[in-house]
Design a protein that fits this description.
InterPro entries: DUF3492 (IPR022622). The protein is α/β, with parallel strands linked by helices. It has helices at about 20-30, 45-50, 75-95, 100-120, 125-130, 130-145, 150, 155-170, 200-210, 220-225, 235-255, 260-270, 290-295, 325-335, 350-370, 395-400, 420-425, 440, 455-465, 470-485, 490-505, and strands at about 1-10, 35-40, 55-65, 190, 210-215, 255-260, 310-315, 340-345, 385, 405-410, 430-435, 445-450. The strands form two sheets. It has a six-stranded parallel beta sheet. Strands 9-8-7-10-11-12 form a six-stranded parallel beta sheet, sandwiched between helices.
Length: about 550
């Protein structure tokens, strides 16, 4: 099977978000052939280069989303009229007074397809999407009777902001990927996320009938709802309508939608996804780096756990959503109940906001826990340490978990807690807050408390610190659960089955031509999409009476 893998800011670029699971998927499905269509998100990412690609990656085509060069296309009068009509219809769908529904989604889809066909006919839309004509079409839609109030209140600056965002989001329309030897040649398009990433797959479905599969380990529409908090109401309303309609059209065209957890699945259903199309596949994580630590814990431990100071471990990106403030206040109660317990906070700050938050947490730790010394002549030491991966005693994530008595997650916002699964691979008992997909991941193998509740967090930690047998049981159960549900093997197997189901339900209908260029009826049997020796083309038997040189039916009279 030939698969078109659509990515944005990830595979095949080094260090791209989501690139790891894509690489594992491609390497695990070596019986298939992959064409990778990737969007880059910055010059630094392009300069970093690609990861080493396996032989089943037959072709890689890339395009930058962060910039677009002028294509030099000059539209004639007819093309300008077509652009104004389709762009105006797209803008009118965004400005509709009612909440986006089927009628608005149909109008949006028709306008989007019209713009794609125009870009294909004329060689691109870069200049047109940046033109004054686009801004005026958007303004007319906002001022039209029946437009929603927030759209009518849009100022010139708001219109320019929205038009600029639409130009960026619609850049994939101008690519040369939509040809018979491009996306038209694949059997299946697999988008690694929704939104703009899935747009080429949406157009391949429109032009060639290629089935589309969309994986969302984080729902992009939810992300757009939570961004631009400082924008004006008009900008937020119009952009939310655009991404909502793009999501609705994508969900409707997709053969299957793949959330990575129940939390993402609920969001997809809330955003209009058809339940019959949903197939939950958990992200696959490599358990090998944690095998040594995991097999030397719980019921696998050769020797009983040695008494000594307890250590709580938190590991992740330092940012306000991780609520380390509540963790520090909870640790104050833990220290009061279990003196000598230490807390290791391991991770890097996430951006300028994370740096400021890390500084605040350091100051709070110094205030809550003055340096302690063993005697009058010893140097004091704070029971809370702030570390980074790669430092002494924290060379790898497995090394950090190896020194943990209990692993703690204190977030108030969380998607799929990959760090929690790493702790489970290591066989560690965990205490987590009830956010995102935490309960789905943990099951019954750890303690879960409400978020922003330091007392409940502290009580759960103390209960595990005082019960080593319970910690061992929970750690062993957690490791078994992680190996069963969150391994790379289960992820690859699930996607392989879904690929076969997709092409079986919605195969691409490409005509098979004979030597004269005419279509051959019944030339592609149903089983042609199933891997096997029968997929090889074989010459068709021709009966004698159908030969080009017919046998004479009567004897020649001499």
């Amino acid at each position: 099977m030939r698969i078109g893998l659509l990515t944005e800011g990830g595979y095949p670029y080094v260090g791209g978000e989501g690139g790891v699971w894509c690489d594992r998927l491609v390497r695990g499905l070596d019986i298939h052939e992959f064409d990778v269509y990737a969007f880059s998100t910055g010059q630094a990412q392009e300069d970093a280069g690609w990861v080493e690609l396996p032989p089943q990656v037959a072709r890689v085509r890339t395009a930058p989303l962060w910039t677009a060069e002028e294509d030099g296309v000059v539209h004639g009068r007819r093309a300008r009229r077509r652009f104004t009509e389709h762009y105006g219809d797209l803008a009118a769908a965004l400005c509709a007074a009612a909440e986006p529904g089927t009628a608005e989604a149909d109008r949006f889809a028709t306008a989007l397809h019209g713009l794609a066909e125009l870009a294909r006919d004329e060689g691109g839309l870069v200049a047109a999407l940046r033109s004054e004509r686009a801004v005026r079409a958007l303004e007319r839609a906002c001022r039209a009777p029946g437009a929603r109030r927030t759209a009518r209140d849009a100022r010139v600056a708001d219109l320019l902001t929205v038009a600029d965002h639409l130009e960026r989001a619609l850049r994939p329309l101008s690519l040369d990927w939509y040809e018979e030897d491009g996306l038209g040649a694949v059997d299946l398009c697999h988008a690694a996320s929704g939104g703009v990433t899935a747009l080429p797959g949406l157009l391949a479905h429109h032009f060639f009938g290629v089935p589309l599969l969309v994986t969302e380990y984080g729902v992009r529409l939810r992300t757009h709802y939570l961004t631009r908090p400082d924008a004006s109401p008009a900008v937020r309303s119009l952009l939310a309508a655009f991404h909502g309609l793009l999501t609705a059209v994508t969900y409707r065209a997709a053969s299957f939608l793949v959330p990575g957890n129940v939390h993402a699945r609920r969001w997809q259903e809330r955003c209009g996804a058809d339940r019959a199309k949903l197939r939950t596949i958990h992200p696959g994580m490599d358990a090998a780096p944690f095998a040594r630590v995991g097999e030397d814990t719980g019921e696998f431990r050769d020797e009983p756990e040695q008494p000594g100071p307890h250590t709580l471990v938190w590991i992740g990106r330092v940012e306000p959503a991780k609520d380390l403030v509540s963790l520090l206040h909870a640790f104050a109660e833990v220290r009061a109940a279990e003196p000598g317990t230490r807390l290791r906070i391991v991770g890097r700050a996430s951006g300028p906001e994370g740096e400021a938050y890390l500084g605040h947490c350091r100051a709070l730790a110094a205030q809550l826990f003055p340096d302690e010394a063993d005697g009058p002549h010893a140097v004091g030491q704070n029971p809370v340490s702030f570390e980074q991966l790669g430092g002494p005693g924290a060379e790898t994530t497995a090394d950090v978990h190896a020194g943990a008595t209990v692993t703690v997650l204190s977030s108030v916002v969380e998607g799929f807690p990959a760090g929690l699964i790493e702790a489970m691979f290591c066989g560690r008992a965990t205490v987590s807050t009830d956010v995102g997909a935490v309960v789905e991941v943990i099951g019954g193998t750890g303690l879960v408390v409400p978020p922003r509740n330091p007392r409940a967090l502290a009580e759960a930690c103390v209960s595990l610190l005082r019960d080593p047998e319970r910690r061992a049981r929970l750690g062993a159960a957690a490791r078994a659960r992680a190996l069963e549900l969150f391994s790379v093997e289960q992820n690859v197997t699930a996607f392989h089955g879904l690929y076969l189901e997709t092409v079986a339900r919605t195969p691409v209908r490409r005509p098979v031509l004979g030597g004269a260029g005419d279509p051959l009826p019944f030339a592609a049997p149903a089983e042609a999409h199933v891997p096997g020796h029968w997929t090889e083309p074989t010459p068709r038997a021709v009966p004698a009476w159908a030969a080009e040189t017919p046998e004479p039916v009567t004897e020649t009279v001499r």
